[in-house]
Target: rRNA methyltransferase 1, mitochondrial
Amino acid sequence: MDDRFPLPIPYTTPSSEFLYGTSVVEAALTSRKAPTRQLYKLYIYTGENREKSSTDRDVDIAKLASRAGVKVSRMKSPDDLRMMDKMSGGRPHNGYVLEASPLPRLPITRLAEITNVDGVAGFKVTVDHQSKEDALVNGTNDFIKAPFTGPAAHPIVLFLDSVQDPGNLGGIIRTASFLGINAVAIATRNSASFTPVVLKASAGASENITLFSVSKPEVFIQESREAGWKIYAAVAPASGRDGYYSRKSVSTDRLGDPLVEGPCVLMLGGEGEGLRMNLRKKADVDVYIPGSAQRFTVDSLNVSVAAGILCSAFVKRRKGVVADAEAESEGDKQEVFSL
Model:
């Protein structure tokens, strides 16, 4: 086909999305999250200019697709490659594109009580109104599993408001998943949309961590607080001339072990302005990252980097509890975090 003419992209459904890249495709094919995406078709490029080192990986990914009941289409011609490039928006896809339904993000109005259902620990949420079509994608289950929740390890939810850069949003989701954050709740009106860029930046983590969408952040924070969740606001340290900090403000190195006390919500604002004041006022505690004492240094961190430091401060003492519990479970896979 003449490359001057546009190639039509085949869609199984009008709402289909195209996932691309090795890590994202593998994560979607192996996801155990409930609800999960509907997977329609996997495209694998096997043309003449395909690297020989990719052959074994092609076989492995095709096997994953077969186990998941996903049809595999092997693309060989230059026009096939053009089509895959178009599916990925011109971004690198490593020879793998997967057509799937939208990513489930349960809309909620609040976090509710910690509970146990059929011997599984977790917490309740109040599900927001959604259309029948959205309910098919997001599900309607109001019980969220939180493995290893107990007296020494209550759940923690990361709430993101005004994170507008897709790369930062994906990076935060990746970090939260790696560190064992139970869920990520995202304000819908002023945050980055869940584009393929976000999914790529998350390196597949978005396919496995629980995601919530929140349409009314102030109500969400207030009602979650009333339900027993302690609210922490990530802010820059506000010091006076004498270096005195508000009694509600604590640094990450003096945070202690808040997850022993009860379930927590960590609020994180966006690039530039940080957390909006109307949300910060609803927090129980402000938490900040102490910087160095050097004079000539940057006074802030990238929001994705800050999220990693903050989340780690909350879960660092829980890791021992989780590690002991995982050691007793058979067949668990150890995650390797590669930078």
